[in-house]
Amino acid sequence: MGLARELAITMAAEFVEVAYEKHPGGFPDGERYVRVMDALAGESVSVIATTHPDPKIVELLLLLDAVRDLRPRRLTLVIPYFGYGRQDKRFETGEALSARALARHLSEGVDEVLTMGLHDPDILKFFDAPAREVSGMPAVGRFLKTRDVDFLLAPDGGAVRHAKEAAVVSGKPWDALEKTRIDSYTVRYEPKRLDVRGRRVAIIDDLISTGGTVALAAKELRAQGAKHVLVAALHGLFVGNAWDKLAVCDEVASSDTIPSRATKFSVAPEFAGAIKSSRP
Ligand code: R5P
After folding, report:
1. Ligand 1 contact via 6 beta carbon (within 6 Å)
2. What pLDDT, in 10s, does the model give residues 85-142?
3. How far apart are the C-alpha atoms of 125 and 122, rounded to whole Å?
4. CB within 10 Å: which end of the chain, N or C, has fewer?
5. Are 170 and 151 in contact (CB under 8 A)?
6. Is the torsion defined by CA of 54, 111, 85, 215 positive or negative?
């Protein structure tokens, strides 16, 4: 992925190619394939792999298996976007605790896990290796400096910790809305006056999935007189007709944890710093 190359450049580290198809077009039944194209014995290796969409999870499991067998000295797993984080609790009896299941399997035989913009930092305890959440807000702050923004908004309680940090990094005031999720596609806001009339506002969130959250927040901002609405999120999934919903925003930006047409800033410096800081 682009972030892995960017990270190698930032760290002046060797980038090892991985082949994901045994022959052009891959296996006829769609099964994934992985081959590491260089020796790793005795090296300090970082595997950078995101978990969306689902076939990437299979690729990552295969990649970790291949890398471990090549006997690196140290193996750091960087998961820029940790999927299944929103099923971090058992809401109904018998449900899989998806975040834990994924965390346990991915961290097997790994020395350290680094991830970003978790749905809830408590997920870190599910990993079977030391795990850290790296903040992506310095990257958001750098991006905001390239735009004319004078107010930040957290579109729900989960985004407050991100908006607060982005506000410190960018030196802008911030506020938050209180969201109730009705179902996977529908959210509702509690009425709240925001000091946004005539202002240029950036909505700060960890994740855009269906776009429902930020689209409704953007409508609320417009209704309260905001003159420009930008969205800066760490992870952009843009599921279904997300882009149609997001037409209410003046600009949508996300990081390179998941590459998309909205990718406008990189979190490579943040992960590079974290990898360097944990080297023994
Ligand atoms: C919620 O906890 C997250 O921070 C996001 O606000 C949410 O997951 C976004 O989902 P959607 O784009 O489907 O509203």
Report:
1. no
2. 999 999 999 999 999 999 999 999 999 999 999 999 999 999 999 999 999 999 999 9
3. 6
4. C
5. no
6. negative
